[in-house]
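In this supplementary section we document a worked example of the pipeline. Step one takes a protein sequence of length 242 as its only input; no multiple sequence alignment statistics are reported here. Step two produces a three-dimensional model, which step three serialises into structure tokens for compact storage. The input and output of this example are shown verbatim.
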Amino acid sequence: MPNRKDSERDIQGIRFPSGMLGAKEGQEFEKVFQQWSALARRYAAHWGWGKKAGTWKEVHWWYRERANVGMFASAVWMAGGVALEEYGSEKTAVGRKRKSKYKGRTDLCFSLPLRRCDYVAEAKHISADLPKPGQEPEIDKIIRGLRAACKNALAVRKQGTALSMVFVTLDLSRASAGRAEVTEAIEKWTKQVSDDSDDKNNLLKKCLFIWWFFPIEARSLADRTTRKPGTAVFVARPHTFK
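The serialised model returned by step three reads:
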């Protein structure tokens, strides 16, 4: 398991750009985020971190939507909540003159200790390039993912407080890059997608929260054995990105 000095060098954070969450609700999602990053490190440590210098075998963000939803659900449990993944449910069709109900599957239902209602979430996963110097982040790609997740979340909004979630895995677009270069690029990317003073990212200001995790180990090995140095999550209400 990486030591405390390693974790202090992680690039991680959470932002609440829309200002729509109350203070207590935001604190609960901060606890989920803390557990999520700790579980990501624990998972990776089990498959190689700390066993041998330079070993890199497995991280959950290499995978698609299902694995990412599972890690989020585990973090909810660790934060004192309850969660249920991939369950059968009755949904309400949207975009038609006469709304109709149909059977389907909902990605996630969860509850946090201070909330008296359940959250229901529909999720998407995308891969986005870590921009080269002078390039802009792929904001449009993230927003397309949010719109797709929002469309799905509208169908489950009667089940609880509906959320749309987009899990983003960042890919290195360059042939080679050392730790310092990767670190600089990631720090710039996180600032660009979370800076609420940047009018270019106006749509992302509508997100309930954005969080990201780029551990020091992933950046150290990004130039050799993996092109995916970390992950981020964008969460919004379903009516936001229709």
